[in-house]
Amino acid sequence: VQLVESGGGLVRPGGSLRLSCAASGFTFSSYYMSWVRQAPGKEREMVSTIGRDEIVKYSHSVKDRFTIAKDMPSATVTLQMNDLKPDDTAVYYCSALCTITHYWGQGTQVTVS
Fold it and tell me: How many CA within 13 A on the CB side of residue 25?
């Protein structure tokens, strides 16, 4: 099983980044896919989730700025992040959840400064 994130980096406030998560080794269509972030000294925070039924959810702090999407043929989930703020600085993790099975990626750093 692999979840490989990419697309992080350093960006100025107001800028944009697009994170990608390439999934392999499990039945992608059966899993709820999420982006979770963790800032230094803070607990992990769910940023966005897209369900098997394509229903999406966002945390209040990113709603209207971030967009989650998934591509079934490539088993990829993306997070388009616009109007980035310094408070968005964190390591962003891709997560796959199905009942009690939970997979995590290694994370990608996003720094807004």
Answer: 12
Query: DSSP readout, 8-58?
Result: -EEE-TT--EEEEEEEESS-GGGSEEEEEEE-TTS--EEEEEE-TT--EEE
109 Cβ contact list (under 8 Å, min separation 6): 8, 9, 90, 91, 92
CA–CA dist 71, 20 (Å, integer)? 11
By C-alpha distance, which of 94, 75, 79 is closest to 3? 94
Q: With 90 as the cut, is the pLDDT of residue 97 above it?
A: yes
Locate 29 and state its tokens.
């269509």
Question: Which one-letter DSSP state was computed for residue 7?
Answer: -
Please write the tens of the pLDDT for every residue from 56-86: 999 999 999 999 999 999 999 999 999 999 9
How far apart, in Å, are the Cα atoms of 6 and each of 1, 54, 96, 112? 17, 22, 16, 16
The amino acid at 52: R
